[in-house]
Amino acid sequence: MTVYRSLAEIPHNPLSVLTIGTFDGVHRGHQQVIGALTSKARQFGGRSVVITFDPHPQEVIRRHGTTVDILTTIEERQQQFQHIGVDAVVVIPFTPEFAATPWEEFVQQLQQHIGIAHMIVGHDHAFGKDRKGNAESLRGYGAEHGFGVTEIGPLLIGDDAISSTKIRRALAEGNLAKATEYLGRNYTLSGTVVQGDGRGKKLGIPTANISPLNPNKLIPANGVYCVRMLVDGAWHRGMGNIGVRPTFTDATQRTIEVNLFNFAEEIYHQIVTVELCKFARSEQKFGSVQEFLEQLQRDRETCQAAA
Fold first, then answer.
1. Do 91 and 145 reside in the same domain of the chain?
2. 203 and 150, same structural domain?
3. Helix/strand/coil (H, E, C) string of 133-177?
4. pLDDT bracket for residue 198 (50, 70, 90)
5. Tens of pLDDT along 88-101?
6. Cα(177)–Cα(164) distance, rounded to whole angstroms?
7. According to the model, what pLDDT value does residue 206 have?
8. Residues 159, 35: Cα–Cα separation, whole Å
């Protein structure tokens, strides 16, 4: 898979099949769209191209500098696109000026720089100034300019349509099982191992304190999680805690700590990836250090038993 940082970089190919979207999370609904993209590209004997944006459009469109909690960084999205089998990705810098571009003008640019044999569009996707570009408008435009359009409907679990918003809500509420089901994989976050206060080591439960690489990455609900952590290319099982450590401090700043089982290496300043496998329990304040340690042993047993 080749990644381009502007439309000017990508070679023109009239047999290109395109889809457009932020695809935050690259969840199962997104995977359905991108799967249709790669399938259609094979039918045409052409290439599959994902047009995506960075930063998240809502960070630019929202007023007063508000941020959106993202499920996947641009690097994580690219990894998922490659896993699905996409041929090329164009990452377009999302700016206020770009947001003001009429959808017809943007599609003309795609034709000029990339080439369009066909377009795959999610049922709820809209783009361009005032979000007027959608499956219906594209069909009319494509009929005039020589390309077809396929609209992909929502992916339902029961009566519920999968969406990034619902996954964010599930993670924020500690419903990791629902988030995992909708994503089609475990939720992950990457960060740098930083110096903590050393309390865990003193208590015999050394932890790696993780500082997320992207400040806008969604941090799930406070609690204890069964995790795996990628260190130097190898996965290690353990238990993690997200929260404010109420038994020991009155702090309000959340931390991410991971205790790996049967692991004693020094990994300060390394970049690691934490995969959340199971939600064990909510964070709570204990009446004593002994109560805390007893519960921690139960947490350890829970996570060691979780395959």
1. yes
2. no
3. ECHHHHHHHHHHHCCEEEEECCCEECCEECCHHHHHHHHHCCCHH
4. low
5. 999 999 999 999 99
6. 15
7. 86
8. 22
Quote the DSSP letter at residue 127.
B
Could you give the number of structural domains in the chain?
2
Q: Tokens standing for 291?
A: 């109560």
280-301 per-position pLDDT tens digit:
999 998 888 899 899 999 999 9
Residue 178 near residue 172 (C-beta atoms within 8 A): no
Return all residues near 30 (Cβ < 8 A) that are at least 6 apart. Answer: 21, 23, 122
Same domain assignment for residues 210 and 294: yes
257 and 209 Cβ atoms separated by less than 8 Å: yes
Show the tokens assigned to 166. Answer: 């619902």
What amino acid is encoded at 150 in this protein?
Answer: T
Which phi and psi angles does 232 have, rounded to 5°?
Answer: 50, 40
Query: Does 66 have pLDDT greater than 70?
Result: no
